[in-house]
Specification:
CATH architecture of one domain: Beta Barrel
CATH topology of one domain: OB fold (Dihydrolipoamide Acetyltransferase, E2P)
């Protein structure tokens, strides 16, 4: 049984990913000498198993262990390197206390906060002090006054801006509070086209009761999202609904598959879908959880085109390695961590939970409940560390909110299509009713208090529960196999 488990889960790709995770999140904070010592021990262990495999040539176990230790060391080195590459090193080349202005390129679409202030990250080009400008580098966050929102939204990502104000140092890095804004250079034509599409969507949904939610769910624009709705979703443990991720991409890919699979065939539809997904991610912008889903979708398309076995955990591991190499800075974001941990929990435990609850829970609720439980247990410790509270009610509320959200997204896409021929008004009332329904359900769920406690204790309990679920499922299957010959 152990060897079977080893063959299915502990693959070289899995070992590489685990090594990268440990290297990125654990070993990067260790002293250089400690890292060298650990790598040396791994190399010694690798050669130890290599010697054993040469002595016992009939056993494949030692050969696999030899290879797994080698790729684990490679993953460890990769993780440490990517953590270093993802660090934001800021060089002002001037006295920080004298800086009165900064110039840089907008790295993201400016976001309007609940206070009306506009926030955006820039890649520094120059800093100004007493009329002098010097070259600078690194990334800092700028906060602009509310009156700058329109200009920033109009010019968008890729534009070069100059802001005057005050530089501040916080525990999370440097921020700049701007009092004035000047657009010194427009973005390139492709970025301007992208910004134009986003502005068009913003204007078309503006004024609708449900428009802010539609923009948030379809393209990640949260400027018009009701602050009360955001609070309600957070209290109900449903914040993940508002963050673009695999669930939202699944709706889009399902629509693509439904519309293209029959007329084009599986492979042509997959390629077309991949192109649409790439364009969609470019339109939305760099969101770690969405990018993870997109990479996994593209890897899935690759397996279809070349008739390769589609192993979900292997695709997840490869997606992690690709994303951490392409965008190492994203590895430190909470959405990145939660996205991978939640999906890993689903892949490892949802089937076991579904098997244990089969016959107890109605079939139409069994799968979504199993998925929610797997994701919740896997992320409970991280959420407790990050937010100080976890909301188990989100598991139950999600059974109602997720289908409604899917219906709402499909309705919003149809509304956009119908708006081209000016008959979208027929969907205004249905979308409003769905929106109000989600608001009411999440409000009731928000009244249920969350669980506060020691994050380490919550992490320990969640791990014990995951092990218990796996043990119960193993005991159930063993019992069934022992009874079956007598039936």
């Amino acid at each position: 049984m152990v060897i079977r488990f080893y063959n299915k889960l502990i693959t070289p790709l899995f070992c590489t990913a685990i090594g990268a995770v440990i290297g990125f999140y654990v070993f990067s904070s260790l002293h250089f000498a400690a890292v060298i010592t650990i790598l040396s021990l791994l190399i010694i262990t690798h050669f130890f198993f290599r010697v054993l495999s040469s002595i016992n040539e009939t056993s494949n176990l030692y050969k696999k262990l030899t290879f797994c230790f080698a790729v684990f060391a490679v993953g460890l080195t990769l993780g440490i390197s990517m953590n270093e590459a993802g660090k934001n090193i800021i060089k002002f080349n001037i006295d920080e206390n004298k800086i009165t202005g900064v110039e840089g390129i907008l790295l993201e679409d400016p976001r309007v906060l609940s206070s009306g202030t506009v926030m955006a990250a820039i890649s520094l080009k120059r800093c100004a002090s007493a009329g002098n400008r010097v070259s600078s580098s690194g990334e800092i966050t700028l906060f602009f006054p509310p009156e700058s929102a329109r200009n920033l939204r109009e010019f968008g990502r890729g534009a070069t801006v100059f802001a005057e104000g005050t530089l501040r140092s916080t525990e999370h890095g440097f921020t700049f509070s701007a009092v004035s804004l000047h657009i010194t250079k427009k973005a390139n034509i492709i970025e301007r086209m992208r910004t134009g599409i986003r502005l068009n969507l913003f204007n078309r949904f503006e004024g609708k009761v449900w428009g802010g939610l539609a923009l948030a769910l379809l393209v990640g624009i949260r400027d018009n999202l009701d602050v009360n709705l955001t609070t309600i979703y957070r209290d109900a443990g449903l914040s993940y609904i508002l963050a673009l991720s695999g669930m939202h991409l699944a709706v889009i890919t399902a629509l693509i598959s439904f519309l293209l699979k029959k007329p084009l065939g599986l492979k042509a539809a997959s390629i077309t879908g991949a192109v649409i997904i790439i364009l969609y991610c470019f339109l939305v912008g760099p969101m770690p959880s969405l990018n993870r889903s997109a990479i996994m979708y593209l890897l899935g398309v690759f397996t279809i085109l070349y008739s390769l076995p589609k192993k979900s955990i292997s695709i997840l591991c490869l997606s992690f390695l690709i994303q951490i190499i392409l965008t190492p800075a994203a590895g430190n974001s909470l959405s990145f961590i939660l996205s991978y941990v939640a999906l890993l929990g689903i892949l490892i435990t949802s089937r076991q939970i579904s098997s244990l609850l089969s016959g107890i829970i109605p079939d139409f609720l069994l799968q979504p409940l199993s998925l929610s439980c797997g994701a919740f247990l896997a992320t409970a410790g991280i959420c407790s560390f990050s937010f100080g509270v976890i909301a188990p009610i989100g598991i139950i509320a999600g059974l109602f909110i997720v289908p409604l959200t899917t219906l709402f997204m499909i309705g919003s896409i149809l509304w956009l299509l119908l708006d081209i021929v000016s008959i979208s008004f027929i969907l205004n009332y249905p979308l409003t009713w769905i929106y109000r329904g989600m608001e009411i359900i999440s409000s009731f769920a928000g009244y249920v208090p969350g669980i506060k406690g020691n994050p380490m204790l919550i992490l320990l309990i969640s791990v014990i529960m995951l092990i218990l679920i796996a043990s119960l499922e193993y005991w159930r299957r063993t019992t069934q196999l022992s009874i079956k010959p007598f039936l």
